[in-house]
Amino acid sequence: MKVLLVNGSPNPQGCTYTALHEVETTLQRHGIGTELLYLGKQPVAGCIACMKCFETGHCFRDDAVRDIQNRLAEFDGIVLGSPVYYSGPTGQILSFCQRLFFCKEGELAGKLGASVVSCRRGGASATFEQLNQFFTIANMPVVSSQYWNSVHGFTPDDVRRDREGLQTMRTLGENMAWLLKCIEVARANGVEQPVYEPRMRTHFIQPK
Question: Which residues make beta-bridge pairs with 5?
Answer without folding.
Answer: 36, 79
